[in-house]
Structure formats: structure tokens, C-alpha cells
Amino acid sequence: MTTTLAPEIHAGVRFLAEVFAGAPLEHVGFRLWDGTPWPDEKTRRTTIVLQHRGALRAMFSSASEKGLAEAYLADDFDIAGDVEAAFELTDFLGRRTAPRGLAALVQYYHLRRLPAAPARPRSNRAFAATGGRRHSLERDRRAVTYHYDVSNDFFRLWLDRQMVYSCAYFARADDDLDTAQTAKLDLLCRKLRLRPGQRLLDIGCGWGGLALHAARHYGVNVMGVTLSRPQVELATARAAEAGLDRAVTFAARDYRELSEADRYDAIVSVGMSEHVGAEQLAGYFETVGRRLKPGGVFLNHAIGDGARPRRRLGASFSDAYVFPDGDIPPVPVVLRAAEAAGLEVRDVENLREHYALTLRHWVRRLETGHEAARAHVDEATYRVWRLYMAGSAYGFAHGHLAVYQVLLSKPGLGGAAGLPLTRRDWYA
Amino acid sequence: MTTTLAPEIHAGVRFLAEVFAGAPLEHVGFRLWDGTPWPDEKTRRTTIVLQHRGALRAMFSSASEKGLAEAYLADDFDIAGDVEAAFELTDFLGRRTAPRGLAALVQYYHLRRLPAAPARPRSNRAFAATGGRRHSLERDRRAVTYHYDVSNDFFRLWLDRQMVYSCAYFARADDDLDTAQTAKLDLLCRKLRLRPGQRLLDIGCGWGGLALHAARHYGVNVMGVTLSRPQVELATARAAEAGLDRAVTFAARDYRELSEADRYDAIVSVGMSEHVGAEQLAGYFETVGRRLKPGGVFLNHAIGDGARPRRRLGASFSDAYVFPDGDIPPVPVVLRAAEAAGLEVRDVENLREHYALTLRHWVRRLETGHEAARAHVDEATYRVWRLYMAGSAYGFAHGHLAVYQVLLSKPGLGGAAGLPLTRRDWYA
Fold first, then answer.
1. Interface test with B, best of A346, A394, A398, A408 (most B CBs within 10 A)
2. Dihedral angle, C-alpha B71, B75, B77, B80, nearest 10 °
3. What is the DSSP string of A10-61?
4. Contact assignment for A344 to B400 by CB distance below 8 Å
5. CA distance B195 to chain A (A)
6. CB-CB neighbors (< 8 A) of A399 in chain B
7. Contacts across the A-B interface (CB distance below 8 Å)
8. pLDDT averaged over chain A?
9. Are B79 and B31 in contact (CB under 8 A)?
10. Complete domains list, chain B, with CATH
11. Nearest to A308 among B172, B353, B411 (CB)
12. What is the pLDDT of residues B163-187, one digit of tens each?
């Protein structure tokens, strides 16, 4: 068959066959710029659609996942069908090319014999990491708002009704997203064992979903902080609308800027500590621990590298386009930092399968809302979210990523934690 | 009042007043060899009874917890009443004398002005740590049998009916010990989600309580291993008596001597990994992980230093007399070792309050059975157990010690753990 192909197509097919020799191609195939399918005509769950003759050069010349992603953002290729399955191939490449990296392989297979990519403007969407020390207050503010200030309306399109932007909790795998997010908010409140009149601090409160749930259903007073002003604005408006504005306060504040005078019965942080930085974690727990009354509890919910982290292909897509300065150390590192701050590890639950389910909901809803999304963000931004969320779903499903709810306590008088003997009440 | 005391008594009282200046003496007082109470006549929960004029020299001249314990083993002093509360004073001394140590304080307060201890034979009960590299197969066998081979009848006196020598699980704090130990065995089986016909490996099976419970109530086949032959003998006899000898096998074997051919659906290890050694932990998890089928689970239940470990007073009592070569790293170290072996952290539960309750049952029962115990062990051995168990109860209650049940999984095909989405079934 290859003998009948035009020389450029032949070179492209040969390149793919060499780079993906031994790859799992049950679910993912390619379509070249003239329509030629590879490895065969069989319809697959996912098709990598090469948009022009220079697509392979554009995808592979930087020999990194960042370069691959940039080629997708610039529409050198598109991904038709199930975008999550496409990560089977990057996963394969990571394993195949470790430890030398993709560059050696690509070099060996004569990428330069392929047609050059057309000259055209590249997206300047990447985070500008210049200026400011990593994890300074100012740079963290820029890094965080880079992700969360894209557009409230954009997030509203594909998040659940309460706009909870973290792993949901599925009592059953086929629960809908609204049900699963409400279940997650309630699980957090049960783990914190909130009682009416208590003071709760929510660090990284997002659009206020958890704070409002806790105030409404558990009668607590909540202070919610985030670095994103659009989040504060919407959360504040939602509290007023719900008649909860006396119980709940939101502020644009860093965890290092909390009032030294305030003490809370319980503290929760969901999907925020990924922005703190592994080296700052001990300081984070120290700072948060000081805000806690003796006998109080702190629930930290965060993504971490799984026990079998993936092998990354060179420069990181996430660092540049998704979560600049983000850091997701494995859970033992998080626990060690918490203990160093005198907080006691009481309960740890791995919810990675829940995050895979959550992300699949988000990707489906984002894809369904593609046109509507384009009213709020450009195509590159849409593609950043589609790609990162599908890749994360793949990572959680395969155990490259994990997400842990960690319940910590600050012992009271004589070291007493003051907690019930069992976790049975969380499941009553 | 002090003016009316004999000079030796006066010196003793002055020494106590200096060493324990600022100590919490609500629960613990002293009685000197002539009957003089210190700090006053008030009756307290605990009395340290100095048996002769040389008692204080005997207690403090080595300026270590090991020396203090040895003075108790040799009956230079006795502890009347609640032995656990006596640890308030060693805890105080640890805090007061850190970081320079007790020696400087004792020196300063002129211990040598006190009468000398009478010359008499010291106990040779301590573990002879000579011979064999730490954590070699041979030395581990000696270190473990040193503790567990004391006498089956001795352990039977104060353990529960099923002879479970690890932290029980109290649904209510006032549950009796038999109830709480049965609840613990069942909790372990539920966490492992055992199903009929599965193969379970129990590493450090003790006298077989867990293996018999799992076979009887969950229909699994169990291989139990321990380094203690008396444990194997009694466990085997109990299996025969229960008609479970076809389902359960016990063997005297190290975890490093398990057959390479065997694979298990589930593995459990309760109170064994404290003997492995922190440096060997990664190898331990690697070795155990190899015995597990993909998709299988491993529950490791172990004591670890708490988030606020106590300040030890010099040479360790436990190393010399209780758990030679024992090692109880904090839980983050355990989890890091497990992850390094490719095992995934699924669930972690801190049960420290349960161990305090368990140990108080054991101490009470041991004290009640003091006379009966003396039919099986000498007085020094009785005192080793009374002291270590009460001190451990104090440590667990105060958060110096913790005990964690850690559920690990060995991911199967494509990284799938194959577990239910929630822990609800453990509490149904």
C-alpha cells in the first residue's frame, strides 16, 4: 500500500510507524493531511488529525509535551473523538524514550526529512514566568489569577451548578455532576464535623460553593479567601442572593496574609495547596496551623503525584499553560510537612477514581459547550482546558496522579485530639 | 518541716525538689525509704515508693530512662497505683532537660551527696545485642523471639480471649477488650474486603487470632507467618481445635523467606513492621508487594512516632528490654517506602486513642494477674511489661505515639486499583 502514496505522505507514515512502533493503537489512530489513515482504515475512538503537511515537524521538533501541546493549541493538529485516549500515546512515548528523552528518538527518525511547518504567528498564551521570585506573594498572585481569572462565564459553562472546581465524590459512578459535587461538599463538612456556631476558614474558596454549603447546612460562620477577585465578586454575590451574607465573608487574600488575631475551629483547603510549592509546604502548614484553635481540625484536599508517576516528555505543558508554579508532591511529602508543623495525621483518603470521573464530566460539558465557550475565551484557551483536563483524567485513571483528602488535627491540652473514636459518623 | 528530717532524708527531699521543680505533681508523689511523703501528705493517684536509702542514686546515676527503668526492675523503687501517670514525670524531665539531657541537671544537683545504692546483683534481662548485623535474618529472629517467646501462658493471662497482641478497635470507649479485639479483626477483614476462596497472607500472625477470624467469617485461605515457634505451635493447635486446619496454615518464617511462587489476593501485617527497621522498609514493601496479585491490597498496621514525639531521656529502655532493634518511624516515612515499592496509598487511619484504651486493659489485667504471672515469668519480666505498656498508653494518649492502619493497593492492568469508590462498606 505504501508504494502508492505520495513521497511526503510516505515519509509521514514512515515517521509515525517508527516513533510509535509498539504503541497501543487500539483506541487512537492518525489521519494525515491528505486524508490517509494510519495505522489502518479501522475507525478508532480517537483520531489525531494532522492539519497540514508540516504538522509532524510542528508537533515533534521541540521533542517535548509542551511542544506537542503548542502544536495542538495552534491547530497544527486537532483531536477528534475521545481526547483522553490520546494520552495513551504520550504515556507510551514517555515510557519508550525514558531515560534519554524523546529528542534522541525523533532525531534518529529523521524528523527533518519531513516537510517544514508553515510560518505563522504562535499563541502568546503561555504564562510569563519572568519577574518575581517563585512563590513570592506577588508572583503567586499572578500565577493563580492566570488560571482562575480567565472568565467566570467560561467556568460556569462546564462546572456544576454550584461551580465547584475540584474533585467531586461519586457514591455511584453514574451519579450526575451536581449530585457528586454536593456529596463532596457534604463529605468535607462531615469530615470536619462542623457544628452550629463554629468558625470555619476556607483557604482557596473558589466561587464559594463549599462556604455556602457549610453555612447553609451546618450553621457555621465562614471566612473564605482566594487570590482571584472575580471569584470573590461572584462568591459574594451568591452569598447575598442566598441570604447568607451575615454568615459568610469572602476576601481576596493570600494564606500568608490572614489576620494573626483570628482563630478557627476548623480549616479547609480544597485544591489550593497545589499552588504552594513543595519547599513552602512546611511553612504553609505552620501558618495555617497557627490559625487553628487547639483541638481544631484542618482538612487539606490536594492532588499529588501517584505511586507510579508518569514519565514526562521534556518541558511541561502544565507549567507553561495551565498551572504555572504549580507543584504536586506525593502525599508522604505533604504529610511530613504537616507533621513538621505539629499537626497530627488523622485520616487520609485517596479519591483518584473520583477525579477521573469528575474530569470526564467537565471535558464532555466543555466540548458540548465549545461554541458558547468561544464567546468568553479564544480557541487556544479552550484547547488548553480540553487538553489539560483530559490528560488529568487519564493520569488519575492510571494512577499517575492521585488526590488525597488529609484530615489533620492540632492536639489540645495534654495532646488530646478530642475526636470521635471512629469514622462511622461520616457514613451514617 | 524539713528541719525535723534526718540529714539523708533531707538531702533526698532537696534532690527531688530540685529535679522536679515545676513538675506536674497533681497525680504523682514520692514516698521516701523512711515513709516521708514528698511533695506533701496528699494522697495521689500514683506513688513512687523509694525502697532504700540508695534508691535515688540507683535511679538517676545513669541519667537515662534505661537507668530509671533498671532501678524499677531491680526494685530500687516500686510504683504504687496508676503506673501510667508516673510517665508525666519522665515526660516533664524530657522537656525540662532538652537538649542537654538529664545528666547535666543531675550533676548540678549533687546526686553524689546522696547515700550510695547497696551492692546487689543486677538483672541480666536485657537483650544481648551482640552478634549479627542489625536486621540480619538471624539477629531479627533473636530480637523478635526475645519479646514474643517469653511464655504463651504469660500472654494468655492478660490478653483477650483470642490473644490478639495489637491495638484493638473500640466502637465505644467502654467496650470490653474481647469485644474491641473482635471488632478490630473484623475491621481489618472489611478493609481488605475479603471474599470467600481468596488467599490471604498474614505477616506477623501472632497466636493466629486474625487468621482464624478471617477463615471463619470470610471463608478465605490464610497463610500466617511469624518468627516465634511458640506462636506457631499455639496458633496451629487453635486452628485444629476450630476445625480450620485445612483453611489456615502457620509457619515460622521471616517475610524475606516467603516462597517466590506464591501470590495472594490480600496481605495483612499487624504490629510486625515495627521490627523491620526504617532503612529496610522500602525492601520490606518491595518484598511484600511481590507476593501480591495485581489488583491486590496490603494492609499494614503499625506504630509510629506521633507528630509530637516525646523527648527521650538518654539510652532507651525499649531497645534494651522490650523491642530490641525496633523502629517506629512516623507515617510519612512508611508511606514513602510503600510508594517507592510501587504500592499506592489508598487509606490511612490513626487509631492512637484505641491503643491507649487497649494498653490500659492490658495493664489492668496484668496487674490483677501479678501473682499468676509470677508462675510463668520472673518479677523483672513482669515489671518490663507493666512499665512498657503503661508508658506506651501514656505516649498514645498524649500523641507522642500513633498507630496507623495503612491500606495499600498494587494497581492492576492500566493502573486500575479495582476498589469500590467509597469506604462506606466498611461501616455498613
1. A346
2. 130
3. HHHHHHHHHHTTT---SSEEEE-TTS-EES-S---SEEEEE-STTHHHHHHT
4. no
5. 21
6. 344, 411, 415-417
7. 133
8. 94
9. no
10. 6-113 (3.30.1050), 137-427 (3.40.50.150)
11. B411
12. 999 999 999 999 999 999 999 999 9
Distance CA A421, CA B183 (A): 13
Structure confidence at residue B308 as a pLDDT band (50, 70, 90): confident
Mutate to test the interface with A, among B186, B334, B350 (most CBs of A within 10 A): B350
Q: What is the pTM of this model?
A: 0.96
Q: Which residue has the cell 507510551?
A: A92
pLDDT at residue B117, rounded to an integer = 77
Rounded to whole angstroms, the Cα distance separating B291 from B236 reads 23
Rounded to an integer, what distance in angstroms lies between the CA atom of residue A122 and that of residue B190? 55
Q: Is the pLDDT of residue B298 over 80?
A: yes
Name chain B contacts of A336, Cβ cutoff 8 Å: 330, 332-333
CB contact (8 A) between residue A423 and residue B427? yes
| Cα(A362)–Cα(A165) distance, integer angstroms | 10
Pairing of strands A199-203, A221-226: parallel
Q: Give the closest of A307, A332, A345 to B350, CB-based.
A: A345
Tell me, what's the pLDDT at B109? Answer: 72
Give B-chain residues touching A342 at CB under 8 angstroms.
307-308
User: Which tens digits make up the pLDDT trace of B81-109?
Assistant: 999 999 999 999 999 988 888 888 887 77
> Residue A248: which pLDDT band, with cuts at 50, 70 and 90?
very high
Inter-chain touch B421–A307, beta carbons under 8 Å: no
Yes or no: say if B60 and B68 are a contact pair by the CB < 8 Å rule: yes
Q: Is A255 helix (H, G, I), strand (E, B) or coil?
A: helix
Contact assessment for residue B184 and residue B168, using Cβ atoms and an 8 Å cutoff: yes
B103 or B263, greater pLDDT: B263
Which residue is closest to B340 within chain A, CA to CA? A307
Report the residue from B307, B416, B422 with minimal CB separation from A171.
Answer: B422
Place of cell 509515525: A16
Q: Which of A330, A346, A349 sits opposite B347 (nearest CB)?
A: A349
Instruction: Write the CB contacts of A36 (distance below 8 Å, at least 6 apart in sequence).
Output: A5, A9, A13
Choose the mutation target among B84, B348, B396, B406 for the interface with A, i.e. most A CBs under 10 Å. Answer: B348
- % of chain A surpassing 70 pLDDT: 99
Share of chain B above pLDDT 70, in %: 99
Between B1 and B380, the more confident residue is B380
Contacts of A414 in chain B (CB under 8 A): 397-398
Cα nearest neighbour of A187 on chain B: B422
A121 pLDDT higher than 80: no
Q: In degrees, to the nearest 5, what angle opens at C-alpha A248 toward C-alphas A244 and A252?
A: 135
Q: Which residues of A touch B173 (CB under 8 A)?
A: 421
Mutation for testing the A interface, residue in B333, B339, B347 having most A CBs under 10 Å? B339
State whether B350 and A349 contact (CB < 8 Å).
no
In angstroms, the Cα distances linking B31 to B22, B35, B38, B64 are: 19, 6, 6, 21
Q: What pLDDT does A117 receive? A: 77
- What is the model's pLDDT at position B3? 57
pLDDT tens track for A61-78: 888 999 999 999 999 999
pLDDT value at residue B99: 81
CB–CB contact A344 B417 (8 Å): no
Contacts with B343 from chain A: Cβ below 8 Å: 307
Q: What is the pLDDT of residues B265-294, one digit of tens each?
A: 999 999 999 999 999 999 999 999 999 999
CA distance B353 to A411: 12
Q: Is A404 helix (H, G, I), strand (E, B) or coil?
A: strand
